Structure formats: structure tokens, C-alpha cells
Protein 1
Amino acid sequence: MEVYLDHAATTPINKAVLEKMLNYLSREFGNPSSIYKSGRNAKLAIEDARNKIAAALKCKCDEIFFTSCATESNNWAIKGCAFNNKDKGNHIITTSIEHESVLKTCSYLEKNGFDVTYLPVDEYGLISIEDLKSAITDKTILISIMFANNEIGTIEPIKEIGEIARKNNIIFHTDAVQAIGKIPIDLKEYNIDLLTLSAHKINGPKGIGALFIRQGLEIETFMHGGSQEKGLRAGTENVAACVGLGVAIEMAMDDIEKRVIKVEKIRNKIINDIYLNIPCCKLNGHSIKRLSNNINFSFTDVNGKILVYMLDKVGIKASSGSACSCGTTKTSHVLLAIGLPEKLATESIRFTIDENITEEEINYFIKNLIFIVDNLRNHNDFSR
Ligand SMILES: *Cc1c(COP(=O)(O)O)cnc(C)c1O
């Protein structure tokens, strides 16, 4: 049996998404900048996808810009904002639990004359609003805080953060990759100026993302060249992928409330099953302010990476740390930030589900998890 429990790393492409894309990878191959019919059709397809994204976010289609991935969107939002406002100030506020694409962009800016404050988080992964307020200086130009964390699923107080940003006239960017399709987002109510999203986390194709840029907000050009994306992000559009993102986000928003309730129920059952059946374990993250599909556990004396390998042998796909730090021996910066001791941080594993998981799959997963954790612990005992 195959049980895919790594939806935070990537998701399978939806059939309807793929079908809509295929036309633009074969028959309708014209360059969207060309003025003959197949070019115009490609252009129309891109604009239709842009409209779908705008409808999903309840914003204007002029405010949506296609990028090659969320990593690019984060780079563009942060660097574009920093360089455009360097006369106003050089201070940026972010958190210690951001995705690497935010953290490494910030450290690049630090080498280029910017100051960055990395807000700490509490044991659940939440930033403190008081910390945020006291971090603001008259040099602060940007606050970049993720909507929800990809490793432990913690949902940050975005509305309060947006309020503070607006009150202090500071630009607010949020990496909403994990929140799209799981939390209804109101850009206006939350005072969001820049928002990052990615298609492959919502059953769309890899290699396409978008950046919402609030109308009137100026940021630096990211890719210099042609006039695509209003000249701000040049390069011939990835037409099929744009189409795929459009369909994927439309489906992700469809019936979002019902789906979230369903997934939450399944998530809670799995968490309970683990607590009931496996001793010496700890749920990482917040119990309520948590993404509906996220389960992150530490199992004392069970190395997370080894557990991932053992689960894979029986067809169960999970993740230790974040996918990005996989292959390296680096301990998750998120788990360290919530105060886990180094050892327990390496003894952690993330399971991220979706609404299509069956009862049979859940039972198979729980049965194997109990067995493997028990085995690894006993093995550890023998080797001592
Ligand atoms: C996956 C992810 C990214 C990176 O997305 P790509 O499209 O793969 O570059 C950024 N931020 C978060 C929170 C993510 O989960």
C-alpha cells in the first residue's frame, strides 16, 4: 500500500489541472506576446488564469504577478521592497521560523546594508505581538511573516500583524504558501501588501508561483527584459503552468470551509491514535492555531530520518524536518526555535494529509508507525 503523507512538501497534480494544461503544452504553443491567433489564445489563457487567482484572493487581476515558484515570489517581495525603499530605511522584521527562501534572502540583504530582526517564537511557534511592536523603529520598511508554518503548521496572528504594519506605515508581506486552500484569506481585512503563493502545494504543477502586489505599491523589477508581467518580471510566460495554477487555486477555494472541517477531524483522529498507542511522544506546534492537515511529532529515542526511511519501506511517505533541509544533517531551525532540545528536534517527523486519505490508509499508517517506533526503540535498547 502507498500512503502519501507529505502534502506540505508537494501535492499530486489534480487530473482536471493536468488536462487543462496539456493543450498549452502541445496544440496551443504560440508565444503569448505574438499577435497572431495562437499567440493571442495563449495570452487569453494566462489572463484567464490571472482572473481565477484574483477571484480566489478577492483582489484585482492587475495585482497578481506570475513567478516561477514561491521561492522567487519571496525573493522578489523582500528584495524588491528593500531596494525600492532604501531611502526611507534599512530595517526589516521577520521571524526565526520562516522558510529558507525568506531567511536566506534576508541574510543576503544583511550583507548589503540592511538590518534584520528575527522575531523569536514561543513553544507553539507563535510570535508575540508585543515583540513585534517593540522591534519597530523609524527605519523599519518591511515586515515579512509567514501565514502558517510549513513544518509545525502554526498559524500566525496575521490580522494583528497587518494592523500594526498599517498603523506604522510599514509594508507587510506574508508567505501564504501553506495557508492557501486551508485558511480563507482576506487581503484587505488583514492589510496584506504582498502575498506569496505556489501551485505545487495546492495540487497544481511545480515551477509556477505568484506574487500579489497591492495596487499602488511599488517594488523593484525582479527580472529585467521584455514587457511580460508589466515589465516587472520579464521572460516568456510558462503558459501551461499559469493555466494549471489558475485551475488549481480555483479548486483549492471551492468548499474550503467544509474541506477544512473534514481534514481537521481526520487530523485529530490520527493525533489521538498516536497519543493513545505510542508512549513518550510529543505533538509539536499549537493544538488549535494549526493548519488542518499538519501533524508533527517527536518520538523520544527514535531518529526522525531513520523513521522516514523505515516508513518508506512499507510505502508510507513522510518528512523529517523540512524537505529543503533533507539530505543535509542540519537540524530543523523551526524545531530549535520552539525550544526543542537538539536531540528531540532530530527525533521529529511530519505527516501532512489531505481530504482524500481513506480509513484503510489511516489504519495501515497507524499500525506500521506503532510497529516501527517500537522496533526502533527496542533496537536502540539492545545496542546500548
Ligand atoms: C514550499 C514552500 C515554499 C517554496 O515553494 P516553491 O514553490 O517550491 O519555491 C515557500 N514557503 C513555504 C512556507 C513553503 O511551504
Note: The chain has two domains: 3-11+255-378, 15-253.
Protein 2
Amino acid sequence: MRDDPRLPFSPRFWRSPLRGPWFTSVLGLVLLVGITVLFVTGLVSYAAYNPDLSPVNDKTPGKGLLGFYLFAWPTHPYWLYRLTQGVHVTLGITLVPVLLAKLWSVVPRLFALPPARSLTHALERLSLLLLVGGGLFEFVTGILNVQLDYVFPGSFYVLHFYGAWVFFSAFVAHAVLKTPMALRNLRQARDEPSEPVPPAPAEPNDPASPGPAEPSEPVSPGPAEPNDPVSPAPAEPSDLVSPAPAEPTVSRRGALWFVGGGSLLLLLTTVGQSFDGLRRLALLAPHGGAGPGTGPNGFQINKTAAYAGIDPAETSEEAWRLVVTGRTGTIRLSRAQLTELPQHSAALPIACVEGWSTSDQWWRGVRLRDLAALVGYDGDPPDVFVESLQRHGGFRRAALRANQVADPRSLLALYVNGEELSPDHGHPARIIVPAAPGVLNTKWVARLTFGDL
Ligand SMILES: Nc1nc2c(c(=O)[nH]1)N[C@H]1C(S)=C(S)[C@@H](COP(=O)(O)O)O[C@H]1N2
Ligand SMILES: [Mo]
């Protein structure tokens, strides 16, 4: 089977002259940096949910030790989550061509026979399974979540969270083993002609061979740089290089530009979802291209009031009451009563876990810490549990931590950009908290329960 060039198990089956250590190393080093940033921003996003606030925020209650790093998510700088999550999603999408090219560049190895030459080799291949499987899994679940609006109801967090730990563990092992070699490959390529010498040196006395231009010049890879003391022994011919290469149709550098061009195109059609001025460019983003209209309430909407099943009869001045509970009991406030409390403003963005965000909107309403004071928490407010009028699905409940409640910019907003909130943005009242993920900014608020969670 290994010798039949019609089967992928034979090295001769793989004929692209592009494959080789240089191509794989460049892509590998790009992914080393990129995936590390993805992992860190991903962990940060998980922390931003304040999953230690039970019971509603934690989508992965079994996380155990994996939650070792969790910290109270700050409210400064107010654009923090907009930045970290914008980077996470935009970079993830931009890296797709690089990931695919990297997998393509090493695909002959996936078929290499025998399956294991030794125990070490067997372990290495097993770790590659976790690496490739884990990587594809993380990219696919992430992109599906962003594009298809939570196709995995509730379970996306669980899948993406544990998947990330499995994938990143394999990734670290792989990076430790391969990075030194990748760096060496690039350094060597820099010292040598840009197109690597074919692996099988041409027979010098083969008349048909095109041969080297100058026969007197030895082409053997030879000792790299005799005067370079740290230079390693000449690399053995890599198993990535095809033993029977086809005619090249594009140079390795050209292929790299092609991959980079693909990434650039994805970047340009994604990044607009984070900038109001560029939103029309965001062809690939579900909350990009189609704008939410104009006017004070004309910014991105995640779920409309109709989608959330908000009955207009429940939100009228006569029907709606905010129920606030705390140390001293429960009070009920109409919207008119809320507007008579001291009003404060804050310019804050909405930044969704899906990566899209709005520029700063000018919110106006009652400070959360003032509401806490009404039910017995003067000075030092506790956590708060927020419930929406929405009865089913999605993000109708969320907990906020004491530091978020205490921030003077954390509001129960009644107005945005100088106008009443529109039904889709959460009329009669919604939460807005600096630096928090959009999902914690509950719309159509019905009930606030202050107390330690
Ligand atoms: N009740 C309720 N509040 C909600 C949601 C929801 O589905 N239901 N979606 C949340 C999410 S995920 C985001 S990103 C923001 C979006 O706010 P916007 O639609 O005003 O832009 O609202 C949050 N508040
Ligand atoms: Mo969101």
C-alpha cells in the first residue's frame, strides 16, 4: 500500500512542489502567535461572563480547576470587552485560510504508514489527532455560533470551553516540539536561495536533466554556514517534500500571498462589524451588512422585542412595574417614578460575544447603585440578579457583580441618544454596564434582586 502512488499512503501520491519545511514553518509560526491570542482572549471572554456568580451565568458548572484563573471582571476601561472579543472573533475568522493551508501542507503525514513506529511516535500521532481535531472543532463551533446565532442552544459555551482546553494542551505540546525547528527552517531559508533546492539532487551525469545552471557550483546542501558555530547539521530531506513533485504552477512565496490574500479578504469583510462607519463592509457578519435603520435607536439589535415574545401590553405605563428587592424588602416602581429619580448618563458600547459591537451610545437612566440604596444598601452595593419580562429562551436573566453595580456608569437605562428606548433596545428599561459583554445588558427588565450571589 505504501508503494502504490495511486493511494494517499504512498509519499509519491502527494505531488505538489509547494509542500516543504519552509512553507509549513511560516504558516506554523503565524498560527503559534494567532492561536495563542485566540486562547487568551477566549479565556478572558469566559471570565467576562462572571461565571462564578451562580446560578445563571455559569454555563460550565463542572469546570473545576479550569476556572482557576477567574477574576472579578473590571468595568475599566469601558471598551475592554469590545476590544478583547472583537479581536477574538475577527482574528479567528482571519486565521481560517492559514489553518487550512497549514493542514494542507502536512496532510501527507496524516496518511503516513506504518501508523506507529514506536511508542513515542504513537503518542505523537495521538497528540496530532487532538491537535487537528481540536483545532477544527474550535474553529467550526466558533464560526457556527457567530454565523448561525447560537445553533447549539446553551451548549456552545460548554463545547467551546472544554474544546479550547483540549486543543490548547495539544497545541502547547506541538509548539514546544516544533517551534525550534520552524525557526531554524526560516533562518536557513533566509541564508539560501528563495526557492529551496529540490530534494533529490539531479544526477550530474544525466544528460536529460536540466541540471544546475553552473555545473562547477556545487549544489549539495552541504554544511550550512561553516563560520556559524550554532548552525545545526544539514537538515535531512524532509518528509514534507514530495519525492515525485509535479511541475510548479506557483512559487511558495506566491502560494503564501494567496493564503494571506484570503485572510485579508476575510478580515476586511468581518472587521466592519466592530465599527459603525465600516459596518456596510461587514458582508460576512450576520449583524453586519443589514443595518438597523437610522435615528437615535438606529444601532445594532441582537434580539428584537417580537423575537423575545415581549407583549406590548406588558410594557405600557399602566402595566409595567420594576420590582426591586433587597435587605429592606421589595418596592415596585413605575417608569414615571423611575424618571423622577436622579438621572445619570454614560457613553457606552454594546459588545456582543459574537464579536460585533457598536460605537459608544449615550445612555441615560438610574444608577444601579442608587436602586440598591433604595432597598437598604447605602454606600456598598452587593451583587444583583436581573430578570427580564422575556419568559423563554436566550438571555433573559443575568447576574452582575458588586463592582459592576457600584460603577457610577452602570445604569438601568430609560433613554438612549436622547430618546426613549425603542422596544427592540429594551423599552421600558434595560441594563447597561461598562466593559461587560452584551449578554449581561439585559433588556425589558422586570425585576432586580440585590444581595450577595
Ligand atoms: N431580555 C434579553 N436581554 C438581552 C438579550 C436577550 O436575548 N434578551 N440579548 C443580549 C445580548 S446577547 C446582547 S449582545 C445585547 C444586545 O443589545 P441590543 O439588541 O440593544 O444591541 O442585549 C442583551 N440583552
Ligand atoms: Mo450578545
Note: The pocket of molybdenum atom (ligand 2) is lined by residues 302, 352-354, 438-439 (CB under 6 Å).
